[in-house]
């Protein structure tokens, strides 16, 4: 396994729990990349059915973390609302029907109903909203470390601060990896879960996903303890937000201004001043009481964005024994538990049964048949990624 972020640690946990001998390599430490910088929303609203299934089954983990994984993930149930204007109203109705069909606890509400549920919210521009009472947020570092600890309890080994230089190809099969010191580590299978570094490892074996490294920022603002709100995805203003404890609100914009592809090894990790101003302005459009909220802190991380902004998961064509889970495009955290279970099944049994990962296969990238959701939202200004 190459990569010790939240998805890599989840796969390692599920493989080790199933009895596989697992060794995880990372060029840094556990949760050293984007996982630590995640907004860590736990919501199930997707426009693509298999992603919704992954998110719904992952919620079971977050709600029962101590029993399933052990340790803590810091999950807090706050409720969730996705708001749309009239241009997206029918899409929202269709998506909620799809989500309900896979077992998501969600419903459509009017602006008046939303105001009753979320008194601090401005709703005059809202046509409809989809609400999820069981959703919320978690602690991304605690979640990742708990998965790593659980993997270790089942016998997995973590080799940290050790970069992998290349994958060993022997007669058309991946049989291990060579680290940066030249040491060869043999294996029956190799799984690359390296985020924006994934293509660098795949290119020498003749394939690549076409991942773009996209810098993404989030900021925390001080919030009066008496002002309470749910997690929001605001397709109208083009932002997302959630509470953090009792006195902070996290807010982000997805893509908000053009930037060149980032270098995942060297990028500005702090917030831009104009980002802070822009995100506060959009935050205030939905929660007016936070218009003058004091900036507390913030950071940036790197999204690994695939050509269709959907994850690539499964076997790598042309090299037996090589698997990949990358290109999550900023949405990997909330689905990581079920992704780990599904990828472990695929690696060990040749078929994923928790959720069928076939729609996310590498073949779609090579053939150009990229994923298109039937009811994808038309986003507000600068929202960034698909849902």
Provide a descriptive summary of the structure in words.
With 387 residues, this protein is α+β, with helices and mostly antiparallel strands. The chain has ten helices and 19 strands. The protein has helices at residues 6-17, 49-63, 65-68, 89-101, 111-117, 140-153, 198-202, 273-286, 336-349, 363-367, and strands spanning 23-25, 41-42, 76-77, 80-84, 107-110, 128-132, 136-137, 157-159, 164-169, 174-179, 184-186, 190-192, 212-222, 231-234, 239-244, 248-252, 295-305, 312-315, 322-326. The strands form five sheets. The protein has an eight-stranded mixed β-sheet with strand order 5-6-4-14-15-16-13-17, with helices on both faces. The radius of gyration is 20 Å and the shape is globular.
In short:
The chain is of the alpha+beta class. It contains ten helices and 19 strands. It has helices spanning 6-17, 49-63, 65-68, 89-101, 111-117, 140-153, 198-202, 273-286, 336-349, 363-367, and strands at residues 23-25, 41-42, 76-77, 80-84, 107-110, 128-132, 136-137, 157-159, 164-169, 174-179, 184-186, 190-192, 212-222, 231-234, 239-244, 248-252, 295-305, 312-315, 322-326.
